[in-house]
Amino acid sequence: xxxxxxxxxxxxxxxxxxxxxxxxxxxxxxxxxxxxxxxxxxxxxxxxxxxxxxxxxxxxxxxxxxxxxxxxxxxxxxxxxxxxxxxxxxxxxxxxxxxxxxxxxxxxxxxxxxxxxxxxxxxxxxxxxxxxxxxxxxxxxxxxxxxxxxxxxxxxxxxxxxxxxxxxxxxxxxxxxxxxxxxxxxxxxxxxxxxxxxxxxxxxxxxxxxxxxxxxxxxxxxxxxxxxxxxxxxxxxxxxxxxxxxxxxxxxxxxxxxxxxxxxxxxxxxxxxxxxxxxxxxxxxxxxxxxxxxxxxxxxxxxxxxxxxxxxxxxxxxxxxxxxxxxxxxxxxxxxxxxxxxxxxxxxxxxxxxxxxxxxxxxxxxxxxxxxxxxxxxxxxxxxxxxxxxxxxxxxxxxxxxxxxxxxxxxxxxxxxxxxxxxxxxxxxxxxxxxxxxxxxxxxxxxxxxxxxxxxxxxxxxxxxxxxxxxxxxxxxxxxxxxxxxxxxxxxxxxxxxxxxxxxxxxxxxxxxxxxxxxxxxxxxxxxxxxxxxxxxxxxxxxxxxxxxxxxxxxxxxxxxxxxxxxxxxxxxxxxxxxxxxxxxxxxxxxxxxxxxxxxxxxxxxxxxxxxxxxxxxxxxxxxxxxxxxxxxxxxxxxxxxxxxxxxxxxxxxxxxxxxxxxxxxxxxxxxxxxxxxxxxxxxxxxxxxxxxxxxxxxxxxxxxxxxxxxxxxxxxxxxxxxxxxxxxxxxxxxxxxxxxxxxxxxxxxxxxxxxxxxxxxxxxxxxxxxxxxxxxxxxxxxxxxxxxxxxxxxxxxxxxxxxxxxxxxxxx
Length: 813
Fold this sequence. Notes:
This protein has 813 residues and is an alpha/beta fold. It folds into 4 domains: 6-32 and 124-411 and 437-459, Alpha-Beta Barrel (TIM Barrel), CATH 3.20.20; 36-118, no CATH class; 501-640 and 652-771, Aldehyde Dehydrogenase, Chain A, domain 1 (3-Layer(aba) Sandwich); 776-812, no CATH class. The strands form 7 sheets. Strands 1-4-5-6-7-8-9-10 form an 8-stranded parallel β-barrel, surrounded by 7 helices. A hairpin with a 2-residue loop joins strand 2 (189-190) and strand 3. Helix 4 packs across helix 6 (102-122).
């Protein structure tokens, strides 16, 4: 049946939707089927969200519990957390006093059995024999399959090799078994020729433990090494290979690797590979058009699988946490509308791609069928896809209507299946879930089959991908002078992550430019003068020790006295400046840091050996310190604290300490000095900055920004020096009022002891702020997600070689 006009397509979509609903209703499970009771249980959970949340958290931790008593103990703890109103059966279940009692153990055994049984309902096999049997059972029902190995990111080469061998095992087993299957034209062929009967889905993150967009060439080399044997064997055995799409961070690199790999000579003319496009991304249309352009240039068709997307919550949370734009549509109807737009684009290009549409939304599925009919495409020219264990009545309806349906079949260890189970349970109980609706409720059909845009208009919600400004805890929340609900005018700067090529190219160019030339000599800055010295500090590139980054003048004891005198001279004028004037200086520094961001990243890479992501994180932290202290300063200035009593008027204002000595570390030479400088300058102090002799250049660059921001001469003095003599003299100097130190524990002890002594001419107690090394521990409990714990420990212990005071130095298991 061919339809053409948009109105006709909508009319046909509605008719097909009604048919799907009616057929699905006829295939719904009866009361004596387990599926009926599973649905009733999910309906109950969705009506009690607090209970649902606690139960799902418990199920996610279940695989890591030691025995039945441990399960019962955790079950009771989870249900007793928070404000959860427990129904009587749950109250009776956790009435035991000891989890190792007969009652507790029996409860634990039944929970384990029931949970794993539910997980198996969404999984299709833990070995190739079970997977083949499930695939054959689908074909008997008029459906086909793709097998997806559970588990995503790997944490080592052994795991990545194991993942590759698992994929190869599946290709071998399915490829050989599929040759014996009787052909089913609807499932095994398109209008232009045969299709592989066997189909697997691959996650690239499973094949590379360091799948990082910051270094795509390395990632491609690793993926190519592990994927090439898989693809060659799949081609020999006639197995279709689909590359899954994961989180937004990996999106661009996944497309890039797929296109580059499939453009290699051995695969350029092979059509039996595909990739996913996620419609919940706001730039999904650009992804689709770019992919289609590449297919045309390649000259061989591929499969494209259109999905809504499975990581909406995590993508939104990450964006809010990192202060970036939300990459996904913020409202469900927007994703639905984008899905329908991409549906038409894909079906219009069915001559060069194999379109596949994954959804459990009846409106979306009916729209695919209607648009396909309007383009005079046969049911063999596209396929619909659904997840195993979900929407079984709808699957049966699609098969009855003579459409090609592929079931997405999770495969692997049951423990890994528990996290997958939670995701599926959340989908089934979501307020937006189509599967939550009864297929037999005819009164809801029209509403469920509406055009997505009309649902958006009815919702009255504004379309926005911007983030709400975050309110920070008020540092004076308990003081009567202000209302605690007022937040600071501060928003975190955004880390880049280097997931797009433009960022990578800019930082690579900045690093290359820096390495191509030796840096200029840097002088001391004392008062209003740039001062040389007889001695020089030589900064070497740790990656290329024979290369000199730059030379820096090394101060002597006389210059240390001059710096203290210059700071003391500049301070009275600076402390008298209005709060807003000082805040403006800090904000100008923050703005300049943002503008010269790639230059500072390159300097940190070259001077101390950080990778670009770590270096960018440090620049972001430095920007935040200047902006945060500017905001806090304005708060202090505009709201003096009052403590009036009868007959008195009292005002509390904040005064500077005096001359501050700021001694920075080598591992965070920009961020920590930015914290010290911005805080001291904000409050009207003057300072002497003594950077680490291992990282003096980035501190000199920061001094340039302070000067450009119109900070008066002498307020901050730059005094790098070799050895301990100058630093010790400054700590002991009678005109220094405060010492801020960040460094090793032995040196921290020396600073504390020296600063505590009262020197001749010293009319004050010297204050110290000390940040020393630590023995940081991570406690790993027995019910932890082991993969998450290992990744967290590795990152903490070995990022930047563990050369930071916050590094994990011991693990308590």
